[in-house]
Amino acid sequence: MNIILFGPPGAGKGTQAKKLVDFYGIPQISTGDILRANVRAETELGLAAKAFMDRGDLVPDEVLIGIIKNRLNEPDCTKGFILDGYPRTLPQANALGVILEEIEKPIDIILNFEVPDEELVERTSGRLMCKCGASYHKTFNPPKKAGICDICGAEVYQRADDTEEAVKNRLEVYKKQTQPLIDYYKETGILVTLDGTKDINEVFEGIKGILTKFA
Ligand SMILES: [Zn+2]
Q1: Which of 38, 92, 146, 208 is deepest in the core (most CB within 10 A)?
Q2: Could you tell me the distance, in angstroms and rounded to a whole number, from the CA of residue 140 to the centre of ligand 1?
Q3: CB atoms within 10 A of CB 180
Q4: Contact (Cβ atoms closer than 8 angstroms) between residue 178 and residue 87
């Protein structure tokens, strides 16, 4: 069961990824995480990536794809994997296609989470954080006492990149980048679009229904 997750920031992709990991026992592969792990372990590719990062440059696709390939070849990916946050561009999608063919792990399905912009802005720009790691939402999950963390009593705050302006910008960037990818994968017939406005459990039941043919 080899899955790619697509969806704008705030569409609930992360929540569903966690549920998939728990339910099917397949790992979620986040490129950020495996990149950091390779840098820490000072693997050949990790060191190559670090040289770019130290200069403030983006890690080039060929380095990243090598790291992904190694990760997908690890034993815990035998039953499948969930790729989250990758690919982001058409060249990355092409490079990924090549390595997946090489290691004989073709993508079975791409789950594309759709949520209208206005709702995404409302969800994300209402987010409140606490330095203890707790998170809240102004409307959907406010702290019991306004502005104060339920757990540690500290003042909650909004992250600078969660303001309405910042969220709208992120969505624009996401769309510009991802739309060509969505069109590309639609043609392959393995892209399924999900209504991310539904209740978390309802969305997950829908996903399970879609995945029965791969389990
Ligand atoms: Zn707190």
Answers
A1: 38
A2: 18
A3: 12
A4: no
| Centre of ligand 1 from the C-alpha of residue 143, in Å | 10
pLDDT digit string, tens, across residues 52-70: 999 988 899 999 999 999 9
The residues placing their C-beta within 5 Å of ligand 1, an ion, are 130, 132, 134, 149, 151-152, 154
Ligand 1 centre distance from Cα of residue 205 (Å) = 32
pTM of the model: 0.83
Beta strand pairing status for 2-6 and 109-114?
parallel
Does pLDDT of 214 surpass 90? Answer: no
- Confidence class of residue 40 from pLDDT cuts 50, 70 and 90? very high
CA-to-CA distance for 133 and 121, rounded, in angstroms?
Answer: 22
Confidence grade of residue 118 (pLDDT, cut at 50, 70, 90)? very high
CA of 121 to the centre of ligand 1 (A): 24
In Å, how far from its chain's centre is CA 28? 9
Active-site residues, by number, are: 13, 88, 127, 159, 170
Q: Which residues contact 44 (CB under 8 A, 6 or more apart)?
A: none
Confidence band of 25 (pLDDT split at 50, 70, 90): very high
